[in-house]
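Below is how a single chain appears once it has passed through the pipeline. First comes the sequence as given, then the structure the pipeline wrote out for it. We keep one example in the README because the format questions we get most often are answered faster by looking than by reading.
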Amino acid sequence: MLDFPRWKVIWLWFVTLICVVAAIPSLTSTMGLGWPSSLPEPKINLGLDLAGGSHILLEADPSQVRLQRIEGMEESVRNKLKQDGQKAGREIRISDISNRDGALTFVVADATQVDAVREAVLPLTNGAGLTGQRDWDINVVDGTRFVLKPTEAGISQAVTQAMDTAVEVVRKRIDALGTKEPTIIRSGPSRIVVQVPGLQDPQALKNLLGQTAKLEFKLVDTAAIASDVAQGIAPPGSEIVPYVDATAGGGAAVEVVKRLGGIRGDQLTNAQQTNDQQTNEPTVTITFNTEGGAKFAKLTQQNTGRRFAIILDGKVLSAPTINEPILGGSAIISGSFTTESANALAISLRSGALPVDLKVVEERTVGPDLGADSIRKGMIAMGVGTLALAVFILVTYGRFGVYANLAVFINVIMILGIMGIIGTTLTLPGIAGFVLTIGAAVDANVLINERIREERHRGRKVVQAVELGYKEASRAIFDANITNVIAAVLMFAFGSGPVKGFAVVLLIGIATSVFTAVTLTRMWVAQWLRRARPTEIAL
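Resulting structure:
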């Protein structure tokens, strides 16, 4: 017990000092004091229930996923048949293509090619997950008409993948706002809960999340007949897309573009808000990856002199003429932007397009007043409880009570310091976990002191009693805390929001409680015994 190496003493005080220093910025901000801006500022973020903020519930339409899969299958079928026809030296022609009524239908022009088409299409209907089922049902009607319908298993898997992707896109967009520790979780098969602490403007959040940011570059169909377009009739293989506003279209309300082909914006590597060098109007500069840059260069090389439309979320931003090949892998998107809207679009494009449209079905703003009141009452409860415990421990255990109280105080500071270092978020349940760890730290000291008292009653000398007391009590303390750690890890792994906040504080508190209640107090007691050599202790 008396043999406590100097290196270990220095190491323990160093770890303690680091955590205490890290807690100072959080304590100064809580007390309204300043902190030098030139120094690092580890800070505890407050959750929605303490700092206030915005709560939004988003919902996706699963039928949109079904339509997207059918449109994607149509393009895949066209490309596959084109490739197979080129290999065989004989074109495979299909007609009467339709994606209505939840299925893709088309007619094979040459009945002798039906088997070849079936063989070509079959690999595209891959299995849904590990079930061995197919994503698509294939039927041939009247000998030459193919009907491809997505299965429920395939749709279910596609919806799950789309929602998982949507969660990640939403997270990237919110992180770009500079907010700390937002809560973004799935709620049911097609809903996402978004909670952003400290954000009191839900409209800005809705504008950012409500934009799908699906960017497309499609060639303009110059063969479209104006009278047909006025009646809403597009040529085969083309579609009518409205402009964002008439100003962007030079007075035109719509543009006719090729439905398939073109380039999608899912191959962007960067997007930044810039200003046009001539007009100084806000624009967005985008950069493609290697594959996207090559496709963009090929598109502009093969279609120099033609117009192509820049389409965002189903609306045309502009339709410029390709004057020369664009080989640099970057382009500039112009439109009726303000600086704010251009920056929001750049954030959306950088984070990626949402796979489905998300609509707000519930929103509310939580003010900071309730959180401030909760913090105040929580601090009062913790202060009163800690003071009562300190008095009880001091009266009951004397000098050892002083060590225990000092350990509890350092334990509180260390928890704050570690939370500040890792940037965790404190929620109302987290305060409950905070108080719980203080109680656990006191329990550990009670176990140790009572064990020392028992050893003294058995007639052991002071040093022997203290050494056996720490040794035997430490086993019980470690065993008890292992079960708490397991419970906290499970809560963190499977919980969400406030439950995770509680688990994080509990895990940190368990580690610091064991450290301060067992290791630090043992060091202090060892130093006192080595220095004073007492023959009796008051316990």
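The chain has 14 helices and 19 strands.

See the next section for the split statistics.
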